[in-house]
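Final report, results section. Input specification for complex C-07:
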Amino acid sequence: ETGVTQSPTHLIKTRGQQVTLRCSSQSGHNTVSWYQQALGQGPQFIFQYYREEENGRGNFPPRFSGLQFPNYSSELNVNALELDDSALYLCASSLEGNYGYTFGSGTRLTVV
Amino acid sequence: DAKTTQPPSMDCAEGRAANLPCNHSTISGNEYVYWYRQIHSQGPQYIIHGLKNNETNEMASLIITEDRKSSTLILPHATLRDTAVYYCIVRVGSGYSTLTFGKGTMLLVSP
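Structure output:
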């Protein structure tokens, strides 16, 4: 059983650019959530996808968008990057949103 | 989801039991108590969850008070590798219900 894998592990972007982060969910999981974790803070919920449909969204602007594919892998896209977008981005998967979510190790995004 | 309150930090000697408290006085009847931990530079790791009965697994024990307004996570024999931030979260058990993380408790296990 493979866990959640995220790519890339680290990324540096310039303010105003766009970025795509990728996540492969754990085998058998059909629900994927994305979180943003700023330094010293707990993870903050961005959005969740269930069977390719967004079924929940946190307090993030529309320039944060996502996709879930038929194999349940997922992408997080961020347009018009701002300095405050610098954070650890975490992907988590589960089966039907039940019980324990499995998290990936995250992508560290730095916006300069 | 209900809010939780945890102490910002705790210390524990290696080999001793670590008891991490959490208050969740506004928990609803259908909300579970979940515990996750996050070791530095890694993603959060699921530890245990429960509704109203005490639970135990290979990692930890979860003690929930009878009124469900508070709980304690117990690591019976803490090791240095248990040094991490521990998050107590309450949420419904399935479907669309996100994990709302607070700042958690930084547990430092010392030799």
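The radius of gyration of chain A is 13 Å. DSSP finds no helices and eleven strands in chain A. This concludes the modelling results for the funded period.
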